[in-house]
Design goal:
- The complex is a heterodimer of chains A (about 375) and B (about 170).
- Chain A is an all-alpha fold and about 375 residues long.
- Chain A has one domain.
- Chain A is built from 16 helices and no strands.
- In chain A, helix 2 runs antiparallel to helix 4 (about 85-95).
- Chain B is of the alpha+beta class and about 170 residues long.
- Chain B folds into two domains: about 5-35 and about 140-170, Alpha-Beta Plaits (2-Layer Sandwich), CATH 3.30.70; about 55-120, no CATH class.
- Helix content of chain B is about 45%, strand content about 10%.
- Chain B is built from five helices and four strands.
- Chain B has helices at about 15-25, 45, 55-80, 95-120, 155-160; strands at about 5-10, 30-35, 140-145, 165-169.
- A four-stranded antiparallel sheet of chain B has the order 2-3-1-4.
- The longest helix of chain B has 27 residues, at about 55-80.
- Chain B is rod-shaped.
- The two termini of chain B are about 15 Å apart.
- The mean pLDDT of chain B is about 85.
- Classes of the chains: A mainly alpha (about 375), B alpha+beta (about 170).
- At the A-B interface, helix 10 of A face helix 4 of B.
Chain lengths: ~375, ~170
């Protein structure tokens, strides 16, 4: 019951070495290959968005389960809970974008007359961009902190008021998140091509976030079970996570395809530019994206046996994490770096740096308390859960 | 069913029912059926009922629906009746996808319902004869095969002595 994850020195050292190595190689790659400022900033933005997405998806996972009075996730709730501690780190990293504004957001410095950009000026201007950024993060950080605080209070106290409180904060978070996840994806990704717009874009980005965070939760469980923790997580819990992973991969494809189909059908020049760029210069990436994110999970997770096999699901989860990184890559890179972009040393090393940093933050927070929230009213249900 | 001899055990809750199923199976009693007002988690496992193969039917017919739906459109728009829509090529794959998807769902759903009806021998004039009116409301019933010598009312009563039952008859 009081099982606690011990953040061993060995893990910490590996992660710190990976962080330092990733950062050093990235700096070296920048100095040696001179990839140009747009590509560097696009990489920073990509990884910020990817790992912030995992953290936000985890918060969404918790909020949605709490507001639905779900019982099964109770045993593993500390994992997404600790993943949300990355959001403050992502805030600082996102503020760094200030120094790269002019390199990646062409609406921030254009010269001469541009009717479209002038029409969007009320929303797309640098001060308001950062006011919004601070607003989003304030909301996310405060609400996830309040959820986490009340959840952790249930470890030591059996007062039901903490449970009721975190349910209220979960509801507030969902309302706030529903709006800000769309607007933030317009701000940070869609406005890279400020002349273009797609009304489904916010959902498309959001489902990608949720899939990555489900995949990350599965990988965390796989790791923790491998090193001997969380014996009580049975294939029933894994089954439910896999169902979500499977279903939301299909939903992601639905949104991906809807966006493509409507633009393809409508054939309006200001909309098709998005896909022309990607199909002309990024054809392999464009086609690899639905293969990794739809075809592989669809056929590998469709049977019941595969959904209940943690090792197997962990493999698919890692494929999906790579797949959604590539999904962000094809959203961001063609818009910013154009011909100069490629998946090279810089991309790989910077992603390793971010991954190590993310895991470090998650493990630190996870090791702060027991793995089970002992007084959660749904604990019994989760222990005896059958799916 | 009508001519068969059986003993029915009534419960008013699911937990004693699950316990009783386990105990009866330990005693090697033959359970004909368990009737409940709502699905009970873990009952299939307790009765060691094999998993239904309905999902396989769904997959096969879904795949068939996808192939037929896509193939039909491809045939219509390239061979049978080619028309130009909005300057698109005749073989315009993206525009076929929604209908292919709908055909997949339609075939899978109808095939699964149909298979279920056939396998459980449900047909339009099928009459439902309840063992007891109460099982359609709030009672949980286990029907035990009493054809053999050793299963008697007394033996069932004694093997379920510790469990809270409503009636055994």
């Amino acid at each position: 019951m009081d099982e606690q994850f011990k953040f061993k020195k060995q893990y910490r050292n590996i992660l710190i070495i990976a962080m330092a190595g990733g950062l050093l190689i990235s700096v070296a790659a920048i100095l040696v290959f001179k990839p140009g400022a747009p590509r560097i900033w696009a990489n920073v933005l990509l990884n910020n968005q990817f790992f912030l997405g995992i953290a936000l998806g985890a918060a969404f996972f918790l909020a949605v389960h709490r507001i639905a009075w779900s019982g099964w996730h109770t045993l593993l709730q500390r994992l997404p809970d600790s993943m949300t501690t990355f959001i403050p780190v992502a805030f600082i990293l996102m503020l760094l974008i200030y120094f790269g504004m002019h390199d990646i957001y062409h609406w921030s410095y254009y010269e001469g007359h541009d009717a479209v950009l002038e029409g969007k000026k009320a929303w797309l201007n640098v001060p308001f961009f950062f006011i919004r950024l601070v607003f989003y993060f304030t909301g996310w950080i405060t609400l996830t902190w309040l959820m986490r605080k009340n959840s952790n209070a249930l470890i030591s106290s059996s007062d039901i008021k903490y449970h009721n409180r975190r349910k209220i904060f979960a509801g507030l978070f969902l309302v706030f998140f529903a709006i800000t996840v769309s607007t933030s994806s317009w701000d940070w990704i869609m406005s890279l091509e400020a002349h273009w717009y797609s009304t489904i874009f916010g959902w498309y980005v959001f489902i990608g976030m949720f899939v990555t965070s489900l995949a990350f939760i599965i990988l965390l469980i796989w790791f923790l079970k491998r090193v001997g923790y969380m014996k009580y997580i049975r294939s029933d819990h894994v089954h439910d996570l896999s169902i979500l992973l499977f279903a939301f991969s299909i939903f992601w494809t639905y949104l991906w395809f809807s966006q493509y189909l409507l633009i393809w059908y409508g054939h309006i020049p200001e909309e098709t530019t998005y896909f022309i760029k990607r199909l002309e210069n990024f054809r392999p990436i464009f086609y690899i994206n639905p293969c990794l994110n739809f075809i592989i999970p669809f056929f590998t997770l469709i049977s019941l046996k595969s959904k209940r096999n943690l090792d197997w699901v962990a493999i698919i989860a890692s494929i999906l994490l790579v797949g959604h990184w590539i999904d962000y890559y094809q959203m961001i890179m063609p818009a910013v770096a154009g011909d100069s972009s490629a998946i090279g040393v810089l991309e790989v090393s910077l992603t390793i740096f971010y991954t190590a940093m993310f895991i470090l933050v998650v493990f630190r927070s996870l090791s702060n308390g027991p793995l089970i929230v002992k007084n959660d009213p749904f604990l019994e249900e989760s222990m005896n859960y059958e799916s | 069913m009508e001519n068969k001899k059986y003993i029915s055990v009534y419960f008013d809750d699911e937990m004693p029912l699950l316990q009783a199923v386990g105990m009866l199976r330990e005693k090697n009693e033959n359970i004909i059926d368990v009737l409940t007002p709502f699905p009970i988690h873990g009952l299939d496992r307790a009765l060691s009922i094999k998993r239904s193969r309905i999902p396989l039917v769904g997959f096969i017919f879904g795949a068939l629906g996808a192939i037929l739906g896509f193939g039909f459109q491809a045939w219509v728009f390239t061979v049978s009746y080619p028309l130009v829509f909005g300057g698109k090529p005749f073989f315009a794959v993206p525009s076929f996808i929604p209908i292919t998807f709908e055909c997949t769902v339609l075939f899978a759903a109808i095939a699964m319902v149909g298979t279920m009806l056939i396998k459980s021998k449900l047909k339009p004039d099928k009459r439902f004869v309840p063992v007891d009116e109460n099982i359609t409301d709030d009672m949980f019933v286990i029907l035990i095969d009493a054809e053999n010598e050793k299963t008697t009312l007394e033996s069932v009563k004694s093997s379920l002595s510790g469990i809270q039952t409503v009636e055994i008859k």
